[in-house]
Amino acid sequence: MQEVSVSGLRQVLSVYLDAFSSPKWDPIVKFTENSMREIVKTKIVVIEDCVDTWNQAISKTSQALYKKGYVKSAFEQHCIEREKIFPTGLNTEIPIAIPHTEAEFVNESSICFLRLLKPIPFRSMEDPSQFIEVQYVLNLAISDGKKQVSMLAKVIETFQNVKLLDELAKQNIDNFEIMLNQALSES
The whole model's pTM is what? Predict the structure, then answer.
């Protein structure tokens, strides 16, 4: 497995900024005390399931967020449509996908983590012609579009931590959720 390089991360964030930011945003992502405070306030939903396609994975995560009232009913369809245009598969140490959509479909900032019982293919964020067999799907629902880049970068940073990933893989779903909350709240 190949780790996402710093230049690869910059490229991914650059693509993301081009697609979902206003021109006034600074393309350099810095984790300030305020942005970390916002990440800690984000609601976390953790589920584990077996699905066959990326569409089903996005549906599962979107429905879990919708049942909690964190997103609007249109969130799911907009995540699926966005994934078709801007794929989110990342070849991190343990491959992940980070589907998301615009803030207008979000009621409260949240993330649904789907731990897959078997990997499924998502198109690569870095090279959409390639597929990545992902083991986790992290559906981001961020209510303030300006904070999406900070959250995306923090999630990628967290999933580059090999020691954490090894520990998460050994945990039952309840302990997984606790450890994940701790990892995302650390600066």
Answer: 0.76
